[in-house]
């Protein structure tokens, strides 16, 4: 095998769309994780293609003036929070730049002045959900393996999967993404399990007892804890859960699931409530949302509120409109705008999410919303429009892949006055905006940062119908 190049004194110049830093060597782009523009580095190339290379930092010869020390001791190993080494104002700068670049380069459409990005008030402790995995053998970080020190690789671990390695779990002692209660509960569970001989799961051989644990919190300080066991060992399960119930008054919903499948998902398994309620409640303005162990809810609660306010403002509802909320999830946006609309129709692929939406609508005594489950491109068609009415406003919040072309065509046929397009992937959003450019102009663009210290960015676009386009049918 041909030896890959070692590059010396390379200056990092920019940040790419997926969060990796960029350098250029002899007109070849080099993508480098965990580097900052302005760093001068020695790099070991890990992949070499004709038009680009990938490399890792071996040494920082000269640190960028922008570089700061990361807060977390696991930085660089767990795979999350890769931008901790950038000040938050610079993170926002590069995210704003990303939105502007992709909308211009991929969208190829006329754009208004893009609004300044809305940053997250909380830079740490902003998540309301974290999932940790148990492993009978923790993953040893690269620095540890090459330190020359004797360490025990057979120790179990409780933490995060290493990116791209389904069977590798980094043992986590601290995580700053959620309130510190996550560290206290997780480390207590680990200590109890080790002391009482409860086995951690062997991901390769599919054996062991403890499998995953999911922590959810709300803005009232309540905690939902759901632990997945691969063995139905009643004495061990009851012992662990009783300890947690007695030790943590913050836990108001304590649940468990028995998962003997080959994968970690619990979506298709029954949840057993050991103590407290089978849900926690989140509030947003005068709305309340029941959040269960399987429910989807935006993971940055406070910033989700800002995102929804932007969507509601862009929708510009007077109370007489029929609104379609596409990819409605558990119906949070549909219910958030319902008081300003005549009627809201939500459509979502996941049936369980629609059931949650119906439950929460009833819980909030909202009577002008209706929800439908099914594949968007199959449900949203001319017959659906004929039965339920042509929308005045469409709000769409698709997955990262964007909207299917059939869905775009139906939206164009429906010719709503306004379209509010929320996206977690500005690149696919830009592609879809290009498809709608003939009938709709982009009137407003508002980036929103939901995930500090990562490259992820939400973007909200308001599309307004060009006046010379009449209804298609």
Search tags:
29% strand; 7-stranded mixed sheet; globular; 22 strands; 473 residues; alpha/beta; 11 helices; 25% helix
What are the SSEs and their pairings?
Layout: E1 6-11, E2 14-15, E3 21-25, E4 28-32, E5 40-48, E6 52-62, H1 88-107, E7 129-135, H2 142-145, E8 157-162, E9 165-171, H3 181-195, E10 210-217, E11 223-229, H4 234-247, E12 251-258, E13 272-276, E14 280-284, E15 287-291, H5 301-315, E16 322-326, H6 332-338, E17 343-348, H7 351-363, E18 369-373, H8 376-379, H9 382-388, E19 393-396, H10 405-414, E20 418-423, H11 426-435, E21 440-448, E22 458-465
Parallel strand pairs: 4-6, 11-12, 16-17, 16-19, 17-18, 19-20
Antiparallel strand pairs: 1-5, 2-3, 3-4, 5-6, 7-8, 7-10, 8-9, 10-11, 12-13, 14-15, 20-22, 21-22
The number of distinct β-strands equals 22
Instruction: Specify the structural class.
Output: alpha/beta
For the terminal residues, how far apart are their CA atoms? Answer: 62 Å
What is the topology, as strand order, of the major beta sheet?
9-8-7-10-11-12-13
Description:
By secondary structure, this protein is α/β, with parallel strands linked by helices. Helices cover 25% and strands 29% of the residues. It has 11 helices and 22 strands. The strands form 4 sheets. Strands 9-8-7-10-11-12-13 form a 7-stranded mixed sheet. The protein has a 7-stranded mixed sheet with strand order 18-17-16-19-20-22-21, sandwiched between helices. Helix 10 links the parallel strand 19 and strand 20. Helix 1 runs parallel beside helix 11. The protein starts with 5 loop residues before the first strand and ends in an 8-residue tail after the last strand.
């Amino acid at each position: 095998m041909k030896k890959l190049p070692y590059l010396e004194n390379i200056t990092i110049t920019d940040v790419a769309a997926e969060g990796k830093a960029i350098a250029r060597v002899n007109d070849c782009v080099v993508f480098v994780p965990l580097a900052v523009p302005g760093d001068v580095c020695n790099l070991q190339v890990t992949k070499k293609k004709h038009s680009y290379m990938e490399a890792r930092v071996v040494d920082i010869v000269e640190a960028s003036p922008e570089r700061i020390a990361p807060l977390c001791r696991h930085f660089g190993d767990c795979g999350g929070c890769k931008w901790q080494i950038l000040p938050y104002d610079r993170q926002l700068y590069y995210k704003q730049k990303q939105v502007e670049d992709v909308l211009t380069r991929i969208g190829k459409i006329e754009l208004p002045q893009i609004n300044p990005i809305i940053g997250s008030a909380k830079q740490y402790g902003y998540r309301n959900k974290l999932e940790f995995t148990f492993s009978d053998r923790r993953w040893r970080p690269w620095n540890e393996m090459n330190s020359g020190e004797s360490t025990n690789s057979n120790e179990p671990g409780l933490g995060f999967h290493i990116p791209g390695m389904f069977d590798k779990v980094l043992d986590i002692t601290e995580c700053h993404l959620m309130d510190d209660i996550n560290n206290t509960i997780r480390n207590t569970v680990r200590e109890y399990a080790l002391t009482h001989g409860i086995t951690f799961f062997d991901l390769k051989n599919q054996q062991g007892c403890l499998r995953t644990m999911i922590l959810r919190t709300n803005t009232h300080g309540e905690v939902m804890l759901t632990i997945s066991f691969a063995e139905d060992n009643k004495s061990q399960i009851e012992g662990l859960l009783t300890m947690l119930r007695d030790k943590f008054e913050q836990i108001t919903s304590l649940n468990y699931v028995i998962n003997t499948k080959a994968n970690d998902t619990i979506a298709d398994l029954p949840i057993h409530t050991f103590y407290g309620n089978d849900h926690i409640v989140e509030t947003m303005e005068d709305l309340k949302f029941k959040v269960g162990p399987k429910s989807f809810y935006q993971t940055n609660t406070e910033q989700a509120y800002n995102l929804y306010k932007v969507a509601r403002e862009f929708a510009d509802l007077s109370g007489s409109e029929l609104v379609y909320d596409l990819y409605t999830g558990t119906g949070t946006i549909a219910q958030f705008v319902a008081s300003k609309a005549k009627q809201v129709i939500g459509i979502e692929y996941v049936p369980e999410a629609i059931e949650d939406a119906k439950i929460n609508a009833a819980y909030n005594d909202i009577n002008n919303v209706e929800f439908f489950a099914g594949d968007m491109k199959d449900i949203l068609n001319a017959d659906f429009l004929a039965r339920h009415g042509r929308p005045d406003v469409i709000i769409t919040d698709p997955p990262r892949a964007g909207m299917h072309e059939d869905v775009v065509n139906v939206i164009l046929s429906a010719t709503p006055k306004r379209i509010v397009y929320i996206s977690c992937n500005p690149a696919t959003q830009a592609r879809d905006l290009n498809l709608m450019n003939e009938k709709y102009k982009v009137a407003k663009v508002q980036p929103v940062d939901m995930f500090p210290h990562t490259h992820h960015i939400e973007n909200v676009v308001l599309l307004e119908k060009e006046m010379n386009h009449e209804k298609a049918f």
